[in-house]
Amino acid sequence: MRSRALLVPRSEGETTRQALVSLGALRTDLAIRQEGDRLALPLVADAEVPVEWGSVEEREFVVRPLAGPSDYRDLLDWSPEEKARLPRAFDVVGDIVLVRLPGELEPRRVEVGEALLRFVPGARIVGEDRGVRGEERLRVVERLAGTGSWATRHRENQLEFEVDVEQAYFSPRLAREHALVASEVRAGESVYDLCCGVGPFSVTIARHGRARGITAVDLNPVAIALLRRTLARHGLSDRVRAVEGRVEGFAAEAPPADRVVLNLPREGIKYAPLVARLVAAGGQFRYYEVVPRDEVDRRGKVIESLLPPPGGFVLRSQRLVHPYSPSADLVSFLFERGRA
Ligand SMILES: C[S@@+](CC[C@H](N)C(=O)[O-])C[C@H]1O[C@@H](n2cnc3c(N)ncnc32)[C@H](O)[C@@H]1O
Hints:
Helix content: 10-25%
CATH topology of the largest domain: Rossmann fold
Number of domains: 3
CATH architecture of the largest domain: 3-Layer(aba) Sandwich
Order of helices and strands: EHEEEHEEHEEEEHEHEHEHEHEHEE
Strand content: 25-35%
CATH class of the largest domain: Alpha Beta
Structural class: alpha/beta
Shape: globular
Number of strands: 17
Largest sheet: 7 strands, mixed
Low-confidence stretches: none
Oligomer: single chain
Bound molecules: S-adenosylmethionine
Strand order of the largest sheet: 13-12-11-14-15-17-16
Distance between the termini: 59 Å
CATH superfamily of the largest domain: Vaccinia Virus protein VP39
């Protein structure tokens, strides 16, 4: 059967497949095709995927026998109008499924939880995602279906992360970004991963093996403890120094590094000038921000002008990580410090 398909390198296949499942964009009635060193992932008809993920082309697919529905909403005995009020997308973190629901669906949310528990292979518990709060960006979740705790292990980029979705920030939507940033690290670089959470940037960079030293900093002690467990499980404890502390204190005392990552997208701008001072001459600063969509084209230059010393940094590139809300995007900026 013919279908639109997303073409990706095989090395990115599993991470992209997970991301498409979460977006509700992967057709599960068709078998994924292997084409040399690429995979063709079948897409549901009207699904939109970021252009950076790969090219979209038509392909012929084999129909999978006894495949279930491609959309969890088809498991609900609701009217089409009611189903249309449900989000197509959800997140999968290990064996935990998280879904954001509009307030008016409150009385029926358990039915949604049970449908997702049946729909997502290997799901153990489904929670309503009520957003992140406070300085530690902790997710508020309410159980809808299934059992057990909010602690799990999440696979991305052929690594397995210790995660607790309630006690330390983690987003499965950043898997591709973690891999891209790790691939930018040059041999022998020193790296600071600031606001590291459970450490997906640090662990992915450590696994790539090119960095000379990596320091990961976060104020949340639970996040640092989870990072240390992930490092131990992968035999990478001697590659990453995991520091419990505030970025401000760290930045005041640490020596410069070749590469600095700051992922605090709602408030990072208040630390960006301070953190930029940590970037060595010729080094790079990877910075994240949630930007109103109509400002995305201008924002990079504005941030560039705020980084000290004046004129010391140049915006090298920027990319859309994912849409954040109907009117804003999460954007990844790369600045480079001159050698003078
Ligand atoms: C959006 S999360 C980033 C997680 C991680 N970089 C990732 O890719 O999954 C932001 C993290 O910043 C931490 N944080 C917030 N303010 C901080 C500060 N002033 N100093 C150190 N960590 C901070 C929070 O505890 C949280 O884990």
